[in-house]
Amino acid sequence: MISIAMPAANAPSFSDYQATRHFGSLNGLRFLCIAAVLWHHGPVWTSLENAPRIATRGFVGVDFFFVLSGFLITTLLMREASERGRFSLRGFYWRRFLRIIPVYFLVVTAVAAYYIGVKGEIQYLSQLPFYYLFLANFLTSDIPLLSPMWSLAVEEQYYLVWPLLLMILPPRWLIPVLGFLVLLNVVAVIGWLTPLGITAFEAGPLRFAMFNTTFAPILLGSVVAILLHRPASFAVLARFLSSAPACLLSFAAILGLLQWLPADLRGWPNLALHIAMAIALVTIVIREDNPLRPALVLRPIARVGEISYGIYLYHLIGLHIANVGLGAAGLATQTWAVLLVYTGISIVIADISFRTFERFFLNMKTKGWGRVRP
User: Would strands 201-203 and 206-208 be described as parallel, antiparallel, or unpaired?
Assistant: First the structure.
């Protein structure tokens, strides 16, 4: 039997973890997440006969993105508070605005202009404002090519509320409150709140079913950040999750769960998967010399991870271009060709966007409100 616990002498130190300013494996993890999303929206797995269940579940790449986001945001805020006595709420919102909103608004506006302005499909006008208001996760239908924007709405809602809670809640309440919200998400999804009269309601094109939205993984990412930020809980996690076997087994567990969990992931199966993702995340951030690092830091992989946000925003546009182009060439039925071409187009568009449009705004992060003052 292989033990995943390390001798205390080999465990990473809390001070080394706190001194880490750049988690080297995370762009590689972003690569894995966006690769799963690209696979899911590509045509290959839907054309496979008797496809293994794991091949049908590329959508969970978004869930892993959520876990990663919750961890990073909470870690940055808590470290700033530790170093400065408090974190700057205004600075946080300004930096998130610069990273998320300009390119998001660009994509939403371009797609809406194409379908509503060029193609004249004015039925989408009623939905358009809710993309700008980050309420797309409550829309009952989407403007074509904008269906992935529901996840950006979840992120923005988290960004709006969580820093406020982190600022006002006593530290000892943080884990209990997050745990309660995660469990509330789960029991609401499986219908346990319905007998209490708590049901969804509709308003125009929106259907408000707050706890059917995937908030659990981003909250679990926040839990991981808090546990790693505290010396006592860090020591426990370091003892059991900092070894090479722990890292490899945690990622293997995710693959196993994707294959063997029931067809309907909602509720407890999803919670099990999200917990496994949170554990796997710990194994690659708790020490920089984790066994997956050599692969995760390879330059092409890290670069795709670095621009993964743009790839996520642009990839359905890339798929549309690939389908039109390959269709004109008589290759629309070549599913692997479509997958490869649309992936390449998405990466190229995202890379150009990152180097030009997005970089213009990112360079403003340390100016004005983005500066953290003593």
Answer: antiparallel
